[in-house]
C-alpha cells in the first residue's frame, strides 16, 4: 500500500466496524425509547457531521433527514439554528448538547450547555442525545480518516 492510497478502517478491521455499527443500532433504540423521533435524530447527526466536516456522513444523513420529513429550509439554516425560531425548545436543547459534546468547549460553556439541555430534556432524552453525539463523532472520525467517498448522484 502506498502512502497516497486511502485505507478504509472499516475494511481493515471489519469486526471493529461491526462493533461500532452495533453500538449505533443500540443508540438508535435508546433514542426511540426516549421518544426522540427519527427527524430529530437525523437533524442531530447532520449538525455533528457539519461541525466535524464529514462529507460522507453529511451526504448520508441529509438524505435520511429528508426521508424523515426534515425540510430543506431547516437543513439550510441548521448551522445558524440559534438565529432562527424554526427549531423547538427540545431541538434547541439537543443541538446545544451535541455541539458541546462535539466541540468540547471550556468547562463553563459545557456546564451551561448541559444545564440548558437538562432543563428541557428528560434524563432519558439527555442520555440518548449524549450517546448519539458520542457515536456520531466516532462514525465521523472513521469516515474522515478512511476518506470515504461521496458518490455523485445519478441524473
TrEMBL record:
One of its GO terms (molecular function) is peroxiredoxin activity. It comes from the Bacteria. Residues 29-99 form the Carboxymuconolactone decarboxylase-like domain. InterPro entries: AhpD-like, AhpD_core, CMD-like. PANTHER family: CARBOXYMUCONOLACTONE DECARBOXYLASE-LIKE DOMAIN-CONTAINING PROTEIN, SI:CH211-175M2.5. This is AhpD family alkylhydroperoxidase. It comes from Pseudarthrobacter niigatensis.
Amino acid at each position: 500500500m502506498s502512502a497516497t492510497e486511502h485505507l478504509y478502517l472499516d475494511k481493515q478491521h471489519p469486526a471493529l466496524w461491526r462493533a461500532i455499527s452495533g453500538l449505533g443500532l443500540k443508540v438508535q433504540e435508546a433514542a426511540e425509547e426516549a421518544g426522540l423521533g427519527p427527524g430529530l435524530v437525523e437533524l442531530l447527526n447532520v449538525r455533528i457531521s457539519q461541525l466535524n466536516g464529514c462529507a460522507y456522513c453529511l451526504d448520508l444523513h441529509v438524505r435520511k433527514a429528508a426521508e424523515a420529513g426534515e425540510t430543506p429550509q431547516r437543513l439550510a439554516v441548521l448551522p445558524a439554528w440559534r438565529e432562527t425560531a424554526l427549531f423547538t425548545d427540545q431541538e434547541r436543547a439537543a443541538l446545544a448538547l451535541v455541539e458541546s459534546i462535539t466541540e468540547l468547549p471550556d468547562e463553563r460553556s459545557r456546564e451551561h450547555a448541559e444545564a440548558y439541555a437538562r432543563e428541557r430534556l428528560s434524563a432519558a432524552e439527555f442520555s440518548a442525545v449524549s450517546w448519539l453525539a458520542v457515536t456520531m463523532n466516532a462514525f465521523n472520525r472513521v469516515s474522515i480518516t478512511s476518506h470515504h467517498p461521496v458518490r455523485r448522484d445519478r441524473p
